[in-house]
Fold these 4 entries.
Entry 1:
Amino acid sequence: MAKKQDLNLSLFAFDNYVGEIICGVDEAGRGPLAGPVFAAAVILDPARPIVGLRDSKKLSEASRDALALEIKDRAIAWAIAECSENEIDQLNILHASMLAMRRAVEALKTIPTLALIDGNRCPVMAIRSEAIIKGDDKVPAISAASILAKTARDAALLVLHAQYPNYAFDQHKGYPTALHLERLQLHGVSPVHRKSYAPVRALLNAG
């Protein structure tokens, strides 16, 4: 019999989920050298299905933006939260991601009974949770959370680009691309860079 994480899940697909108020939870922005890490939680409405939900990384920017609007319109509840660069440096990125996910769940206007989390770890929360590996491409509610987290973070990096145009955040969204590393070497570490990340820390130590 296939394990749950190996199945193509849909909301309320399993007998033990009947009667549960399920929220999908995912994060965006663990890898970048700059900017906050974002998380989202979504409770989908089975009566208002959304076509095209999948892992946000497999969607075009235009598709993500369109789906994000549809999710916000059709979901029973949704929330987006973040952890700042300072929190990431203090806690480490894993714990900051867990905290952002917990904040998103706790911000939902409808209280869920079960959180389905993308990945292999769950944040400590007041409600029950279950981790589902690659859930962002299997569970529609997690896919929706993935899309909201990704679009929110991309929008935040455009704001950071306006504040720190030398770093081209609008192009790489903070990820350690060749362009970003070049700008980091040229202009030094900005206030929104994650100082605990190796390329940033190396520059600080050298300086």
Entry 2:
Amino acid sequence: MTIRARVRTATRTHDHVRPPVRTRGLRLAAAALAAGAAVTAATVPATARTTASHDTPRYLEPAELPPHPSSPWYAGPVTAGQPDPLPMCVGEALPSIASHRSFWTDYDTNAEQVTVVERSTQRAKDFAALLRKDLDGCAKKLMRQYPDVTAEQKYYGRLNVEEGAHVYGVHTTTTGGASDIALFSVGRDDNTVTLVRWAQLGDFRDAQVDDFRTTTVTAVDKLY
């Protein structure tokens, strides 16, 4: 089976459950990752914050994602634990205390938000730095692991929201002709870190960078 066969997304089924995506076999794959919507809702694990509020972190709503020209966004519940499959490049760093929410459209566009509440501000700083390091080396890692994948990446800069957020883009192509674009952001509010991923078929020209920046600011700002 080629990587192209594994990473091609399908359209959403009528019951609004996320369809399989092309990267399910790789768990790291090129750009169109998506976790299946959970059957029951679960809340973020109750973890005491040090200097900020004790409230549960809030998640993005479908309308807060980059607008799709031909489809509304749909969302699964906020679910405790790591997403399955894990998002490419950063998935191995996600701890079991993570919570996540998956989003999808009627077409080959999907997104995900993963939030981790750490025991201290310093642990959150270290975790955010680890995610950024993984994203800094994402393209090289993909090409090293998958010889038939060519990857490029861009850093789109820092956003001034709470303790800051950083935006990245990764474009992957395969020898079979698949082309996928993904945007990632890592943001922190005190001892809470959130990762947002948006992906669809295409390349850097198809990346909704400005809209994704707005989504990232919203995601970090609304945590508490």
Entry 3:
Amino acid sequence: MKCFDRRDLGLLLLRLGTGGVLAAHGSQKLLGWFGGGGIEGTGRDMEAMGYAPGRASATAAGLAEAGGGMLLALGLATPAAGAAAVGAMAGAAAVHAPNGFFAQAGGYEYAASLGLTAAGLAVSGPGRLSLDHALGHAVNRNWMVPAALAATAAATTVVVGARNRRLRRAAEGRQEPLFD
């Protein structure tokens, strides 16, 4: 076996950092850890953001973040793990998009950064310091990358589209004040 190189170490750091952040966010949603609302509180929040049913949406987002994050950190099933994280972050970015790009104004910068990093890891692979490598890449085949990302894109399009339709229906009939 060769020595590990800079690429392997860099991928390990990206996986641990991104995966750790995603897993922590997911555990807020699923378990209420780190000041999160758990399934019940996050479900109410999801309903308020237009994702319905709220409890199912909270569970799906929590599993995608916690599960995808843990798998990314371990470097296991990297295409599926990255795609799950991308889907969750696309849903989060849709919520923050009306606030613009920058996070300080409530924008989608943070979600986009996590999603793009997860997508980059799904495409590049986990490197040699990973469970995928140790297991002979049984769940990290080249064909799995476009399949996982395409499935996630389709599902995310349906979910975010349904949310947008709900929000438009809720806003119908409301008129903004003409003058402040």
Entry 4:
Amino acid sequence: MKQGTATIYLQLRKHVKLPLGQDVRLRDVARVLADPNIEPRLLDIVLKQPREQDGNLVLIDMLQIISRLQERIPDIQIEYMGEPQVLVEMVGKERRPLLVLFLAVWLLLFFGSALTIMNFHADVSMQAVQVRIVEMITGERDEHPHLFQGAYSLGIGFGMVVFFNHLFKKKWNEEPTPLEVEMYLYQENLDQFVITEEYKKMHKAAGRGEKDP
């Protein structure tokens, strides 16, 4: 290392969201550790000015960042940790969901779930099983054990709350719910797919550039 060369440590985030049309700066996509005299200048460096044709997803990789930093401060050494790229999602103003649409989706999910449970119970002859269980407990046969069925229905609801570890906005503990885990895995796979597609576009654009006289 040359004497007087500044060393900059970078750690890129995986996925960030920025307002639509905003310039992407280093402070938005990375954690930076550098000399306090130059760190503010580094954080304000513009890495990308999103255009309409870029869409709402912008990929910025470490090579682009290094190139930008060396343009501003030539005599630096850059060390990076973690991911070699960051996916920037440009988001517009958040709109409140329409009440009619919310109710329609809620009713669809409610009745769809109810029909699924009812069809499952019909397939496994749950009515006959419940009648037999009540008969074994009480010694009397009741073709319509409403008390047992009511308790069973409440138990299904309580079991779902415990399983998903969530009731409206309240969580029982800090463990992620199964739905949160599935959403995380979905987002990871989606990000990886988008990154792969963005790299393909970059390579195609670079190839066209080399062919142009």
